[in-house]
Amino acid sequence: MQGVCETPGVSEMSSLMNAWSVCRCCECLRCCGRRDPRPRSVWLGHPEKREQRYPRNVINNQKYNFFTFLPGVLFNQFKYFFNLYFLLLACSQFVVEMRLGALYTYWVPLGFVLAVTMIREAAEELRCYMRDKEVNSQIYSKLTARGQPQAGPAALLTARNQRVPADMIFLRTSEKNGSCFLRTDQLDGETDWKLRLPVTCTQRLPTASDLLQIRSYVYAEEPNIDIHNFVGTFTREDSDPPVNESLSIENTLWASTVIASGTVVGVVLYTGRELRSVMNTSNPRSKIGLFDLEVNCLTKILFGALVVVSLVMVALQHFAGRWYLQIIRFLLLFSNIIPISLRVNLDMGKIVYSWVIRRDSKIPGTVVRSSTIPEQLGRISYLLTDKTGTLTQNEMVFKRLHLGTVAYGLDSMDEVQSHIFSIYTQVQPAGGKSAQDPPAVKGLSLATKVRRSMSSRVHEAVKAIALCHNVTPVYESNGVTDQAEAERHYEDSCRVYQASSPDEVALVQWTESVGLTLVGRDQSSVQLRSPGGHILNFTILQIFPFTYESKRMGIIVRDESTGEITFYMKGADVVMAGIVQYNDWLEEECGNMAREGLRVLVVAKKSLTEEQYQDFEARYVQAKLSVHDRSLKVATVIESLEMEMELLCLTGVEDQLQTDVRPTLETLRNAGIKVWMLTGDKLETATCTAKNAHLVTRTQDIHIFRLVSNTHRPCLKGPRPWDRRAVRSQLFSSRVFLFFCPNFLPQVFISVTAALTQCAAFLFVFCPAGDGGNDVSMIQEADCGVGVEGKEGKQASLAADFSITQFKHLGRLLMVHGRNSYKRSAALSQFVIHRSLCISTMQAVFSSVFYFASVPLYQGFLIIGYSTIYTMFPVFSLVLDKDVKSEVAMLYPELYKDLLKGRPLSYKTFLIWVLISIYQGSIIMYGALLLFESEFVHIVAISFTSLILTELLMVALTIQTWHWLMIVAELLSLSCYIASLVFLHEFIDVYFIATLSFLWKVTVITLVSCLPLYVLKYLRRRFSPPSYSKLTS
Q1: Is 774 a known ligand-binding residue?
Q2: Does 136 count as an annotated binding residue?
Q3: C-alpha distances out from residue 962 to 630, 717, 834, 958, 1029, Å
Q4: What is the rounded CA–CA span in Å between residue 908 and residue 359?
Q5: Which candidate, 771, 773, 736, 768, places its Cα nearest to that of 754?
Q6: Which of 660-665's residues contact partners 24+ apart within 8 Å by CB, and which partners?
Q7: pTM as predicted
């Protein structure tokens, strides 16, 4: 993935030439053939003991290479019926018996289409190659011993703000506290920093170069997709006795994460396709919109009509002579029934729609990354939205503290602050005690024997919240105070809290606001500052991190001033209810706070004796060294401690919603779009957010999809399995659904999205919206993906078909641009088909009149100019048409519902355009045959001129709202035709078209072909107006 530079011993990051960056990558991490994943032992500094080779560690997002580009593009173009038909048509003209005209009349349009496609593909491949090259050229330092061979597992040195190039085990850090932070937004979608701990044995070595001198190895499990768990051990054999340490997720540095603090050294475990991030990512697929599939279906119908007309013509000749050759000639003669210009017009229209979206000042920053499916935005039936960072800002605000008999809200936090101040000021430090000791210890111990005062209860709750977390205060220079001085004096202005959960940061910030401040923390200790400025020191004995299975986290600390050992725990009410002592208010108050949209945590504690803790520690260390069933054994030991804990308080935190989320969701609902939430967060939190965002009403049913136990196959909550029948029945339901995956894996949401897309094929269009790297595969799998640029990075927006900066922009993107794109393309496609059917009808009439001869009516430049310079500009100007203003479309989202039913492009509208084409083509041809005088060339002049004028008038009939470019296009096309008549003497009698006879005949034929349609349009608008016409009047 990245280049590697070698560093003898502990070297600084070398500044080598870029030439190193690519060539060294594969030398350190050799490629290998595909093999089944298996556990491995990685030796430090002993390449001769390497057990297996590493996959090549490079990023390659290109679809083609230099040799496969041309055949690949051609194959992808001609594998579809539409393009293959025109290729066979053009090739047939090399056979003399089948030739109907000049070769360029068939090859020039086809060549133009292929050239445009190849240029577009080449530009995209070049951009992709440059992006991949930039990533693959990043330079990293490799730790080596002088004279040591360069093969084998690499110990890489990664600096702050560098992206981790491979999955590694964390060995050393330059941070004083012996830990580092990671930013994992591109891996799991969470913006908060994660704390990582190095292997204790290697962190204690004097220098990093000693890593290659010791005899040690890492045993790691086989590669898998689970980004939240890891099982392994670190063994050092040359110590006495040998050292064995258990390795867990806290000791890992996964690829695609970013080092947020210090410089780290890690040993590479997995590379290439074995990376956790790669295994959780699906290959992007080439998306074809529902609109394009519908047009392709209509094209097949036209091909069927082409075959039927050709057979009828030959049958009317009674299959005389070489009838099979006549069938082929008629197939070529009526080939205009399927317009080759249809694909070109639609592709150019998509480019225009994309340009209009990017230029919309009301949704700034919107980017169209997939210009092939803008019409999909007008067909969205289901929106699958991420929660954190998409609907919410991922910013937590502390709202409520509940002690059972009393609750404190935002308006009463000053009372909590006064209780904390009173505790630390009522008793003065006793003789013999340091001023650093907490003055309230004796008072608290006395109060517990009798009856706790309210102040002591509040103090116990606040202290528990200030200690039970994984938050680390980080001090940064503010321009006045440098980092070292700020860290030494605990400067408030320089302190920033970092944690893996925004909930915990909000809780710690709240304890600071009420007087108990977290000022320091490392792997083994925590420092709190009381309101009087005293520093309270606590030793961290054990930490039990939060997991989605346990739904709780705990910490065991020793108070340095008293020696008391206390076990603090906080977690979800569903699990804490069975852990805390019996009470009669927990369930009721948790329900009340949840109904207010708050994220509720239950806080409890338990005092331990020294003997109890020593017994627990021995059992806990033994369980952590297990390789098999480690999680189960560790959980069993911890659960033995989680009994009869004292309930302290409930906390309520609110995740603030994105700007205008509620009106946007209401707009989508009114438009007939069903919104489903997909989340890996806690179920209670997801439900709270759904109700807070008004995604559901307070009384509306919520269906929840979970995972089947021991599998990653989603199922409907309850007895019914996840299958096509169940899914299809729920797709027609008006209920609101939550897809809930407690132990989140990106691969699970991929399978959910794929299952929904397959079950709803050709019925609904699914559009996932997300903002994190974990949403990428889901976005790529669906029909149309929208990425939101947020705090979780830009990976989702870069991989999405459409990228927006705020969720509220989704409303305008769908209601205005999606609607316009679909309606415009529907009108454009049907008009192009009408244009081709008109000239094909005239050809059929002409052949019928002249004894079913397979002779073309128009030849040479006439047939090419008809669909290009004579009619192309007016027809293409339909991409600027709109039925209502954008403000009206946003005000009345119900207009979007008509699009969900596919009414702008349906078999009904297609049949109407077919009948119009047959009528107009017949009128023009029969009129020309009846009114021509003596020469055949007069038929061509009258019919072709009437055909051009009819098409220009039909464009004017189709337009809903005139744009100045439409008028220019009409006049320009008419001027081009009049000017070209001088050069078309080979096909048209120039002297005849200057006569009055020609003018009145053309006028009569054109009026008869168009006037009835104008009358019908007026009557329809008068007596059966469309839904939007009332809004425009």
Answers
A1: yes
A2: no
A3: 71, 53, 21, 10, 15
A4: 35
A5: 768
A6: 660/806, 660/807, 660/808, 661/391, 661/392, 661/693, 661/807, 661/808, 662/693, 662/694, 663/808, 663/811, 664/807, 664/808, 664/810, 664/811, 665/693, 665/694, 665/695
A7: 0.73
User: 393 is written with which tokens?
Assistant: 């800002």
Q: Residue 351: enclosing H or E segment and its boundaries?
A: helix 341-358
- Report residue 887 CA to chain centroid gap: 28
Distance between alpha carbon 219 and the CA centroid of its chain, in Å? 35
Q: In 301-405, which ranges are E strands? A: 367-368, 380-386, 392-402
Residue 816 DSSP one-character state: I
Measured at the CA of 274, the angle between CA 271 and CA 275, to 5 degrees, comes to 65
Q: Which two tokens stand for residue 267?
A: 């040993």
Give Cα 964 distance to the centre of its chain.
38
Q: Residue 139: name the closest of 124, 158, 125 by CA.
A: 158
What's the CA gap between 49 and 42, in Å, rounded? 8
676, 704 Cβ separation under 8 angstroms: no
- Regions of the chain where pLDDT drops below 50: 1-2, 4-33, 147-152, 427-451, 709-724, 731-732, 734-736, 740, 742-745, 760-762
Cα–Cα distance, 135 to 699 (Å, whole number): 50
Positions annotated as catalytic residues are: 386
The SS3 assignment for 685 reads helix
Residue 570 marked in a binding site: yes
Interior angle at CA 894, CA 888 and CA 897, nearest 5: 125
For residue 318, what pLDDT is reported? 82
| Strand pairing report for 525-529 and 535-544 | antiparallel
Annotated binding residue 287: no
Whether the ω angle into residue 223 lies within 30 degrees of 0, i.e. cis, is: no
In a 3-state reduction of DSSP, which class is residue 138? Answer: coil
Could you count the other beta carbons within 10 Å of the beta carbon of residue 686? 22
3-class DSSP assignment, residue 386: strand
Contacts of 228 (CB under 8 A, 6+ apart): 188, 249, 547, 548, 743, 744, 745
User: CA 26, CA 783: separation in Å to the nearest integer?
Assistant: 37
State phi, psi for 569 to the nearest 5 degrees: -145, 145
Helix orientation angle between 683-692 and 586-595, rounded to the nearest 10 degrees: 40
Token pair 């290959």 is at which residue? Answer: 283
Separation between Cα atoms, residue 632 and residue 636, nearest integer Å: 6
CB atoms within 10 A of CB 670: 15
**CB-CB contact of 348 with 877 (8 Å):** no
What pLDDT is stored for residue 75 in this prediction? 86
Position 441 scores a pLDDT of 45
Q: What is the pLDDT of residue 437?
A: 45
Report the DSSP pairing between strands 674-679 and 736-740: parallel
Q: Say how far apart CA 457 and CA 659 lie, in whole Å.
A: 38
- Annotation-wise, does 680 bind a ligand? yes
Residue 190: CB atoms within 10 A of its CB come to: 24
Q: Residue 681, annotated ligand binder?
A: yes
Would you give the DSSP letter of residue 627?
A: S
Size (the chain), residues: 1033
Q: Which residues of 577-589 are buried (b: 16+ CB within 10 A; e: fewer)?
A: bebbeeeeebeeb
CA gap 904, 883 in Å, rounded? 12
DSSP state of 815: I
Q: How far is CA 243 from the centre of its chain?
A: 44
Q: Chain centroid to CA 995: how far? A: 65
Taking residue 271's Cβ as centre, other Cβ atoms within 10 Å add up to 29
Q: How far apart are CA 699 and CA 106, in angstroms?
A: 64
First to last CA, the chain: 60
In single-letter form, the type of residue at position 809 comes to H
Q: Which amino acid is at 1000?
A: W
Is 192 annotated in some ligand binding site? no
pLDDT at 189: 60
Beta partners for 518? 528
Q: Which of 274, 343, 322, 387 is nearest to 34 (CA)?
A: 274
